[in-house]
Each structure stands twice: as C-alpha cells, then as structure tokens.
Specification:
- The chain is α+β, with helices and mostly antiparallel strands.
- Helices cover about 40% and strands about 10% of the residues.
- The protein contains 18 helices and 12 strands.
- It has a 5-stranded antiparallel beta sheet. A 3-stranded antiparallel beta sheet has the order 5-6-7.
- α9 packs across α16 and α14 packs antiparallel against α17.
- The chain starts with a helix and ends in a 17-residue tail after the last strand.
- The C terminus is likely disordered.
Length: about 500
C-alpha cells in the first residue's frame, strides 16, 4: 500500500511538472503575443520585446539616463536635425517606381495564389484551415512600395515608414522559409572558400498577417562583442543589430536608400517551426542540452549544430528587413562595384595598385555621365561609417535607367555638396552623429541597439571622412571636388558594422 501511494505521488508530481512546462513553453508565449496585440488596439502598437512596451514615435522619444543632460539642455537633437533646412525642404515630385493599379493587380494575384496553396497544404495534412489572407490597400508595406520614387525609397516625412516599422514588430507571422539564395545552395556547401557567395548569416523570410514580408536575421553575436583584430576581413559574422543601425544611419544621412529595418523577439517554435511548410527547415530544429530550441542552416555554409542559433528557450532576438517590391514587378540590376575588394590572401584589385585607376573609371560609361559616380561616393561614405568592406555589387531599379537625374560631366568626380553639408552638420556638437544615432535607435524595442564603442566609432570615422575631403579640396580645389547634385539611385545594402 505504501509503495502504491508513493507511485501515485510520483505520478502526480510528474504530471504537475509536465503541465508547468507546457504552460511555460507553449501557452505563455501565446499570452505574451496576445497582450502585445491588445496593447496595439488603442493606437499604440505592442512590442514583441521583453516588457511588451511599444517604442515611442520619433517625436516623443524619451532619453535614456546617459542622454538626460544633453536632452534637458537642448531638447531632442534628432528633432532639431530633421527641422534643419538641410532636412526640412519638401520633397520634389518624382517619378514613381510602381504603377498603383498594376501593383494592386499583381499583389492580388499573389495573395490568391498563396491562399490556394495554403488551403491545399492544410487539406493534404488533414489540418484545420486557417483564415484566408486578404490584401488591404492601406497596408503599410504596400504603401511603402507605392511610395518609392526616382530619388529615394521613401519621402523625408513619411508616416508610412513609422507605421511599417510598428507593424513589422507586432504582426503575427503566417509563413517562414529559407531565403532564395540559401535555397539555391542547399546541398552545395563548399567549405574551402574563404568568402561565401551568400554570406555566412543564416537568414529566413517571414511573412506576416497583412501579407507583408521581411528578412529575419537572428542574433549571433552579443552587441558588445568586437571583431578580433586578427580576423580576415570577411569572415566575421554579420550582426543583426548592424542591420537596424544602418537603416537609422541611412535616414540620418538623408540617403533613404536602405529598406526599413526593425528589431524583434521571435518565438522560433510558434513563429517559425510550427508554421513553415519547408520540411528541410523543420528538420534542422533541435533542443539543446540547455533546453533551448535551436535551428541551423542546411546547408549553405553554417551547416552544423555548432553554428546553430538558439532561443531562450523559445524567444530569439533578430532584425527584420522589409522586402522591396518583387523583381517581377520592379526589376533590379546588380552591378559590380568598381572598387571591389580582393577576396584572396595574396592578390590585389587593380584600384589598389594602379594610381590611374580612378581616372580610367571616369572615362567609362556609365561613370562618365550622369550621377552614378557621385552615388558610388555616397555608398563608399556610408560603407566606411558602418565598417562594411564587402560591397562587391550594388543594385539599381532598371526602370530609372542608367542616368536618371542627369548631372554635368565635369563635376562627377568628388562628393555631393548636399552630402558634404550634412556630414559637416553631423560633426557639430549640437548635431553630433553619435548622439543623433543614440536617440534615433531608442525607437527600436531591442535597445540599446549599439554599444557606446560603436557609437563613438561613427564620430571618429566621420572626422576621417571630413579630413580626407578637406585634403582633396586643398589639393584640387572645391570646384573640382564638390558637386551640386541630388541623390539618384537606390542601392540595396548588405551590411556589417564593427567598431574601429
């Protein structure tokens, strides 16, 4: 009888433990998500990050303690920057990338096709059919696509972008899959290469309830972890927080060429494993010895469990970069960067050994006309600030042609006057770049997105750029170095940010 009572007690304890585990690992994440959505019902969207609070809008960003003194003394530097004449001028009318009606027809067909495939998939597996997806014309991702024009991905004052960031943070995911480049490389790993064609960052494509989609890059390195000095240029992991910071920096520089990016905590079980239809992706999930849910790539290059990314135990931090319009709707061309770096230990590119290389490039179309070369300089400045040494290609929308907004040829050899003016402004104490970035990044729920060493590195790099321009002006004259032009093309960025 005593043994029977003991057995019953052990069974009850076991059942209690199983119930507790189920509540913690399965029900609690759902409750958190529902609470976050409920928080957004009153106009303030919820945040999928710990704490559940939504990030404040740009106009009401609250300062952190380290900013208190500067904010109290002079108010928001970010608001003052965007109110400056260099930023407050209204955008001129420009040719749109997409035709509204054509885009709507295209996306309605995509939604209908997705609903059909989803229905067939559920029926084949005897699963309950979820509610169908509907395309809303007011969806923020669609309005973002319709707002892209000849000069930038979005206007300076765009409530659509703020709404898009909030929606990407809080909307439920309805599908998850590998990116196309990783799908193309499945089973074709070549671990002998120093630099991998698709990078070394495991990426997933997530689609949301409003049919918008974003590229999810999970956290691999802690924010305060710096790249070892002896690392080869291109072997460092790309950082998810660099994606977020690059978007904010791009907007602060007024380039507006980086697609919107936001940080988010993803439940890898509920928001990836349980909704993906990709059996290969399902097969690479496992539970670690620490009881965390993990997954890895199979097999672009990080095809071993040692390179897995893990939740804690289910929640995983990462960045979400909003997709640009489909290539079928808005074709883009990928063009080799004239100043590409060498990808071997010993060889050097021509620009590294030929002092006449730049003059040669300026004589070759399309760099001999239009504003292409000036846009290359903008891109190089941006890359230097974020520490990206891997810009082997850049992209352009084919609709706007090679030239787009034309520029007189004899000025296409330096830095844009508008770019130089903004860089000089961001070097002043009242608009210091590190302070502006710190404040801007407060809007993201994964803050602090960058640590102080990374922020201070931006100030150092900005001063290096300005000194280099000053040297060029002293040598060649301002009329030769500084060109009066507007930004044109819209390169898509793939970024790595490192402190220097």
């Amino acid at each position: 009888m005593l043994g029977t009572r003991r057995d019953r007690l052990l069974i009850l304890l076991l059942l209690g433990a199983l119930l507790s585990a189920d509540l913690y690992f399965h029900l609690w994440p759902q409750v958190r998500r529902r609470l976050a959505q409920a928080g957004g019902a009153g106009g303030e969207p919820g945040c999928s990050c710990p704490g559940g609070a939504a990030p404040p809008p740009p106009s009401s960003a609250a300062p952190r303690p380290e900013q208190a003194s500067s904010s109290q003394a002079g108010g928001s530097k970010l608001r003052r920057l965007f109110a400056h004449p260099l930023y407050s001028a209204p955008d001129e009318p420009a040719e749109k990338l997409l035709s509204g009606q054509e885009a709507l027809r295209y996306y309605r067909r995509k939604v209908a096709r997705w609903n059909r495939r989803h229905k067939i998939y559920r029926e084949e597996r005897n699963l309950t059919l979820d509610s169908l997806v509907h395309l809303r014309q007011e969806a923020s991702w669609l309005q973002f696509h319709l707002g892209i024009n000849r000069y930038a991905l979005y206007p300076r004052s765009s409530p659509t972008i703020d709404q898009l960031l909030q929606d990407t943070q809080r909307f439920n995911t309805i599908s998850a899959d590998y990116s196309q480049d990783e799908k193309a490389l499945l089973g074709a790993c070549d671990c002998s290469q120093i630099v991998k064609p698709s990078g070394v960052h495991l990426k997933l494509v997530l689609r949301f309830q409003d049919f918008g989609k974003a590229m999810f890059k999970p956290m691999r390195q802690k924010r305060d972890e710096e790249t070892p000095e002896d690392f080869f240029y291109f072997v460092d992991f790309q950082r998810h927080n660099a994606e977020i910071a690059a978007f904010h920096l791009d907007r602060i520089l007024d380039f507006r060429r980086v697609p919107p990016v936001v940080g988010r905590m993803i439940n890898v079980t509920k928001e990836i494993l349980e909704i993906t239809k990709n059996e290969i992706l399902q097969s690479v999930f496992f539970v670690s010895p620490a009881s965390n849910v993990c997954f890895f790539a199979k097999c672009p290059y990080m095809c071993k469990t040692e390179y897995a990314v893990c939740g804690n135990p289910h929640l995983l931090e990462g960045s979400l970069s909003v997709f640009l319009p489909s290539l079928n709707l808005a074709p883009r061309i990928s063009i080799p960067n004239p100043w590409i770096r060498s990808y071997t230990f010993a060889e050097k590119e021509e620009w590294e050994v030929n002092p006449l290389y730049c003059s040669t490039v300026k004589e070759i179309y399309p760099y001999s006309s239009g504003s292409r070369l000036l846009n290359i300089i903008d891109m190089a400045i941006f890359d230097f600030l974020i520490g990206n040494m891997d810009r082997h290609h850049y992209e352009m929308f084919t609709k706007f042609g090679d030239d787009g907004f034309l520029l007189h040829l004899d000025n296409a050899r330096g830095i844009k006057k508008s770019t130089l003016s903004r860089l000089q402004l961001l070097a002043q104490p009242d608009y210091r770049l590190s302070d502006i970035m710190r404040e801007s990044l407060l809007q993201d729920c994964l803050g602090p997105v960058l640590t102080e060493p990374h922020l201070l590195a931006l100030d150092r790099r900005l001063n290096i750029i300005l000194k280099a321009v000053e040297t060029c002006i002293a040598t060649s004259g301002e009329d030769i170095v500084v060109a009066d032009a507007r930004p044109l093309e819209t390169p898509a960025f793939d970024r790595v940010m490192q402190p220097s």
